[in-house]
What we know:
By secondary structure, the chain is an alpha/beta fold. It contains 5 helices and 5 strands; from the N terminus they run E-H-E-H-E-H-E-H-E-H.
Amino acid sequence: MGKTILVVDDSASVRQVVSIALKGAGYDVLQGSDGVDALKQLDGRRIHLIISDVNMPNMDGITFVAEAKKLPAYKFTPIIMLTTESQEDRKRQAQVAGAKAWVTKPFQPEQMLAAVSKLIAP
Length: 122
C-alpha cells in the first residue's frame, strides 16, 4: 500500500496536476473540492498528508486545517498549504491552524514533491 494524500482545491485543473505528480511519485490520492467536501473524506481512514488550497468557497483552507486538526485521527497529519497567497500573516494563520509547509502557486511539480517527501516518504 502506498501512502495516501488528500488534495483539496476548488480548481479541478490544480487537483489534476497535483494528483498526476503525486501518483507518478507512488502516492495514492484522494480529492476534495473545498474544505467542506474534504472534511467528509476525513472519515477515519488513514491519510498520511493533506495538501490544501487557502482560498476556496464554502470553507477556506485555514478553517479546514483547524477543523481537521480537531479530529483525533488527523491531529498529527502533516498539512501543506498550496496557494497564490504569499502574505506573511496568512502563512502565520496557517501555521497556527496546524500547517507544516507552504507552496506558492504557480508551482513546479518537483517543488511540491520535495515538500511532500520532507514530511512523508512514498
